[in-house]
Amino acid sequence: MKCDITGNVYYENGIVNRGNLTRLSGIMKRARAGEALTIGFLGGSITQGSLSAAPERCYAYLVFEWWRSAFPEAQFTYINAGIGATDSQFGCARVKEDLLCHNPDFVVIDFSVNDDCTEHFMETYEGVIRRVYGWKSKPAVLLLHNVYYDTGANAQLLHGRVGRYYELPAVSMQSSIYPALLSGAIENKEITPDNLHPNDAGHALVASVITYFLAQVKKETEAECRPEAGAPASGSAEDTGSCAAELRKEPLTLNRYEHSTRYRNDCGCAQCSGFVPDDTPQHGITDVFKNGWMAAENGDSITVEAEGTCIAVQYRKTVHHPAPKAEVLIDGDADGAVLLDAAFEEDWGDKLALVTAGENLSAGTHRVTVRIAEAHADDALPFYLASVIGSVPRE
Question: Which helix (DSSP H) or strand (DSSP E) does residue 72 occupy?
């Protein structure tokens, strides 16, 4: 069934911030001129395409297809950097290798159902935005706020503050699709089987809210480019605006996560006692349990030297029980140890869990020790340490 939002009011309400359109308009001018452009997406499971019947049916690819259809003169490259069950804190650590290395020209950022609506995630979200918007390719950024369709919950309240501070355009499913559900214009079961992840019809609807906004900007840009408007008929990289002036603003938060580094088994800074590196090949960024370390015996330990004032660890929480437990110590501080329970009580599959082990640490390098605290002879899987993340505050 093809779902649609009745009336433009829902689409208009979905545009929660028009922001500064200089960059986006500039990208569209370059597309009209036939340039080669890269369209990128960063987010969680919805961006990855969860519950779409095929990768080409997820909202991200449908938005990419809009660009190809709207600007047939241009050449477009599609980069989907969505990873299920991950938040903006992990996004800060992986955005360079998963997305920015491709020098995107347009980026959709989607973490509003993966982040909690807390000051912590407001800070990590700002870190992602600053990292993307300040990248050398000067990408236009569009913020996407997805929503829980049964409750209307998301992190838009605090994410939106960050977006408005940086004058970034934003569209919201909380302000468009969710009100349409409440009004009876659409039924939940038509667009999502679990009240969060869209099916094909739901992905198409999310894409339509985004492309409605993009089409408005395209129309405005074309009006500017008409000869009678006195504007050039094509754009260039210079038309997209200066990121340096915008990012000289003082951050809205403490901004301790913008510059984050992942330490994995190729870092050369780990001392292992019982932990062994996982050297099996990784097949794409969503193959998350790779390049880490494994251990299965009580007392096994690994120490990673990581730089930063905030330290986090990533590990596997598994639905296969029983599962081991480990503890994290920073610089040998047993009193501040953090427990990592590898048992996952959900039923949808194993999760790449991220836990902040220390904040407001002294600047410099810290010794991060992970030690198996409780292993069982019949554990279904060994403990898997995926990475240590160190976040260095801005200069």
Answer: none
